[in-house]
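Continuing from the previous page of notes. For each protein in this section, the sequence appears first, followed by its C-alpha cells. Read the first protein now.
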Amino acid sequence: MVEAVKTLEKLSEIVFDRQSGSSQIAARLLNHLEAATLEIEAGQVGNFLEEAYAAVLRRRSLISPINLVDALRRAYSLLLEEKGAQPDLRMMIRRLRGMYLTSLEVALKIAGGRLAGCERILTLSKSSQVVSALKRVVGVEARVLAGWPLMDGLAAYRDLRASGVRAILFPDLSVFEAVREVDALLIGCDAVLPDGSAVNRSGSRAAALAAQEMGVPTLVICDSSKLDINNLWAPEEWGLELEGAAIRFQVFEKVDRGLVTEYVSEHGCLSPSSFVDVAGGEILSWPRRLLQQE
C-alpha cells in the first residue's frame, strides 16, 4: 500500500513537470509505470490503473498521458471481460511504450522529409519533437521566438546552436519580422482538439496568424496520442513574479483549425480533419493491440 502511494506521488510529479515537454513527460510516465509493476500485486492492477488515470486527469492541459493510461485501463477491462484472466501489466506497458516511441520517431522522419529543402523555418517554445526535427534539416536557418516570460524559446535556441543549427533569436513582439521570408512555421502541440484545432504554448496563435497573413504554412508536428478523443482538455494558468509584479497567464492556447495547414505525424502530412479521423481510429485500436499475442 505504501509503495502504491509513493508510485502515484511520483506519477503526479512527472505529469506536473513544468520544464519538460508533453512527449518527454509521456515517455517518462510509461517508464515509471513499468518500474511500478514490480510493486503492484495482481489483484490490485485494476485499482492501480484507476488511481493512475485519476492522477493524470488532474492535468488536463496535457492529453498524451491521459490517453496512454486510459489505453492501459481499457485493455485491462477488455481482458477481464473476454477471458477472465489477469493481465501482464508490465508486458502491456512495454508494448504501449514501444508503439508510442515508434510513432514519435516515424513522425520525425516524415517531418524531415516534409521540411527538406526549407531554407528558413520559424518556431517558438521548446518542443522536443520540433527541436529534433529542425536538427535533421540540412542547412536550415531556424528562427526562434524567445518565449517571454518563460524563455523556453531561448532554451530551444541554445539547444539548436549547440547542435550546430544556424539559429536566430527574435523577441516575441517581432513575430511579423521573424515570419517574413520563412518557408514554414513549425510548432509542436500538447493537444489536438476534436474540431482539429491545436493547443500549444501561448504565443502560437499570434505566430500562426502572422504566418497566415504572410502566406506561410503552419505545420504542427504531433502523434496520435495528442488527440483529445474524449474532449477532456482544459486550459492551465500559471503565475510568476517578475521584479515584484505578479503575472498570471494561460500557458497553453488554442490555435484554430483554420490556421493549421497540416499535422505532421506518424500518419503523414494531413489536414486537421483527416488527422482527427485517422488518429481517433488509432487510439481506439490500442487496447486490443496491447493484448495481442506475439
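Done with the first. The second protein uses the same format. Note its length before scrolling.
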Amino acid sequence: MIQCFVKNDYKSIFENNHIPKLLHVCKAEQDDNLFPRIMHMHHDMVEVVLIKAGSGTYTIGNRKYETRKGDILIYNKGVLHDERSNPKATISTYVCGFTDLKIRGLERNFLIGNDVRPIIHSGDYFSTIENIFEIMYSEIFSNKKGVEETGNYLLLSLITILIRLVDLSKEEMTEEEFELGERIKKYIDDNFLNKLSIKSLSKDLGISQYYLIHSFKKKTGYSPMQYIINRKIGEAQNLLINTNFSVAKIAAMIGHDNPNYFNLIFTKTIGMSPGKYRKHLISDFSSK
C-alpha cells in the first residue's frame, strides 16, 4: 500500500478562497455541431471547451485556430469567438460555463492572461479531464438533490488542472504593435449593428478601400464585410436562443430591414433558416 499525504499549508489559486459558480455544462455530439456557432461573446462568464473527437476551425479574439481531439479552448469574459466544425471530421465537445472566477493576479472571470494562447492540448490529462466533464454533465443532467454542489466542486478540480496545464505549456503570444487591422476591427465591433459598407468604413476611418480590405484580412483572415455578416449572425443566434422575439424583430435589431434577406443570409451561413434553427434548438433541448 502506498499512502499519499496532502499538504495542509498550500496556497489556493483562488483569490480569498472565493469559489466560482458553475452556470451550465453541455455535451455536444457530432450531429449537434453540424451548425456553426457564429461570432459571439459572453459578457460575464468564462467558457471552457474540450474537443472530444473530430476537428474544426475556431476563431478566438483576432486569430483562427485549427483544433483536434484533446484540445481545450478557453474563452475569457468578453472574448469574441466563432466555432465551426470540419464537415469531413465532425466534432464532439464538452462545454462548461461559469462565473465569479477570481484567479490570483487575473481580472474577474479570466482563466488565462491576455498574453497566453487560448488553446492548450490536454495530452496525458485528456482522460482525466474528459471524466470530470462526464461526471459533471451526468450529475447536472440527473437533477438530483445536491447536484449543484457536486457540479461546483468538480468545476474546482477542472479549473485547477487547467491552470496546471497552462503553466506546463505556456506559450505567450508575440507582442505586436497596435496596427491598422486592429483599429478597423475595434471600429466594426463597436458599430456592427449599424449599416456599414466598405465605402462608409473607408470614409469613417480615413483610409483607402484597398488598404482597409488588405489590412483587415491580414489581421483576421476575414474580409471586412464577411466579418460584419458573421457578427450580425452571431448576435441573431444569441437572440434566437435567449429571447422570444420574432424573426422579423431580430432581423431589425441586427440592422436588416428586409426579413427575407436576413433569412437568406442566415440560411446561407448556418445551413437552416432562423425559424428552423430556433425549433431545432428547442426540440433538441427538450429531448435531453
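What the second structure shows: The first strand starts at residue 21 and ends at 28. Strands lie at 21-28, 37-40, 46-53, 56-60, 63-67, 71-75, 81-85, 92-99, 119-121. We return to this in next week's lecture.
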